[in-house]
Design goal:
With 198 residues, the protein is α+β, with helices and mostly antiparallel strands. It has one domain: Roll (Pnp Oxidase, Chain A), CATH 2.30.110.10. Helices cover 20% and strands 35% of the residues. Strands 2-1-5-6-7-4-3 form a seven-stranded antiparallel beta sheet, sandwiched between helices. A hairpin with a 6-residue loop joins strand 3 and strand 4. It is globular. It binds flavin-adenine dinucleotide.
């Protein structure tokens, strides 16, 4: 997917990892959906389905009464972010405490899927993605028609995406001097939690 002015990472551009977008979306569990309704911005968390074999499609589901899903089904533009928190970064300087992460942001437009066969298939894949050790018909019963009717399924066609990753050690001025602050705080080696980059 091409990088556009909207998806170009300006702050720490060296952390741009567009080639990892599919992997991040495949590994994530929670998608934060943002949209504007009546001029008011909303961000709502959802579970979601994604398959790297159809990389430009992401699926959300929920109650047919869901305000967010109804809004999406109307064809409104949406933005979705998926974040993987990989670790906490300890520093000797307050400002340099940080987190290592991988994160993908996608922009697109949604449509509702109403065909029951398509819904059944996608809901099955959705369960398989989050619960890969479970088998329909053995570990749980397949959905009945009433369940499918009560659950809205929305497909977002991704038009643009970006991905960013921080995977560094702490970057504070003293983080490469393991003894300085330990001595100041009368710590002995091994006592200190400082400078630990997870
Ligand atoms: C990890 C996670 C996964 C979820 N997965 C799904 C899913 O797959 N499908 C699904 O339908 N719902 C899911 N939910 C619930 C979802 O976040 C919404 O609460 C729900 O979809 C209702 O959406 P709505 O637009 O109709 O909310 P409304 O009830 O219309 O929202 C009204 C207001 O309620 C508040 N609100 C709504 N949801 C939340 C929330 N989660 N936390 C705090 N405040 C909130 C906001 O201020 C919002 O403006 C999930 C929630 C979490 C935390």
């Amino acid at each position: 997917m091409k990088i556009t002015e909207r998806t170009r990472i300006r702050n720490h551009p060296e952390r741009a990892v567009p080639e990892e977008t599919k992997e991040i979306l495949s590994q994530g569990m929670v998608a934060h959906l943002s949209f504007i309704q009546d001029g008011v911005p909303f961000v709502i968390p959802f579970s979601y389905h994604y398959n790297a074999k159809t990389p430009d499609l992401i699926y959300l589901h929920g109650s047919v009464r869901s305000r967010a899903l109804k809004h999406m089904a109307s064809g409104a533009p949406v933005c979705i972010t998926v974040t993987l928190t990989d670790g906490l970064v300890y520093s000797r300087k307050a400002m340099n405490h940080s987190m290592n992460y991988r994160c993908a942001t996608v922009f697109g437009v949604a449509r509702e899927i109403t065909d029951e066969t398509e819904k059944f298939d996608l809901f099955d894949k959705m369960v398989q993605r989050c619960f890969p050790d479970r088998t329909v018909g053995t570990d749980y019963n397949p959905p009945v028609s009433g369940d499918l009717g009560a659950t809205a399924l929305v497909e977002v066609r991704i038009a643009e995406w970006s991905a960013k990753a921080r995977r560094e050690n702490p970057t504070g001025p003293d983080d490469d001097k393991p003894d300085a602050l330990d001595k100041a705080l009368d710590l002995v080696a091994g006592d200190s939690e400082f400078g630990k980059g997870l």
